[in-house]
């Protein structure tokens, strides 16, 4: 058995491994990753998300429906508007770490390491 840095049990035979694969499959789409990134700052309506990710509201709504089914985003209704927000910090962290990993694949000195040096 192994443990991550937070002390959580991450056994190789964990029943959550298959569910983790489903999470990765859900995030194997650039629009959904951009939606997660856009929601890091808080809740947004579909129109605002569409503008942020450069897609039509219809396309964004379809992706949001999938993210909602996966319990990665939640909704709040205000009149006829629907606002979306991240269900928890894990999707945000997963996407952030994936982008940081991508930076490593193209840059020997990734930007995110420079930002940490300044702090």
Automatic annotation (TrEMBL):
Q: Which residues form the HTH arsR-type domain?
A: 12-106
Which domain of life does this protein belong to? Bacteria
Which SMART domains does the entry link to?
A: HTH_ARSR
**Pfam families the record matches:** HTH_5
Keywords, A to Z, come to: DNA-binding, Transcription, Transcription regulation
Could you tell me which PROSITE patterns the record lists for this protein? HTH_ARSR_2
Under the GO molecular function aspect, what terms does this record hold? DNA binding; DNA-binding transcription factor activity
This protein's name: Regulatory protein ArsR
């Amino acid at each position: 058995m192994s443990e991550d840095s937070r002390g959580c049990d991450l056994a190789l035979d964990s029943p959550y491994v298959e569910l983790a694969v489903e999470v990765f499959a859900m995030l194997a789409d650039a629009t959904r990753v951009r939606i997660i990134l856009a929601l890091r700052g808080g809740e947004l309506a579909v129109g605002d998300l569409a503008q942020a990710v450069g897609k039509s509201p219809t396309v964004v709504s379809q992706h949001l429906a999938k993210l909602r089914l996966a319990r990665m985003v939640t909704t709040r209704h205000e009149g006829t508007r629907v606002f979306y927000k991240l269900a928890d910090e894990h999707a945000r962290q997963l996407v952030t770490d994936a982008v940081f990993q991508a930076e490593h694949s193209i840059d020997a000195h990734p930007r995110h390491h420079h930002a940490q040096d300044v702090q």
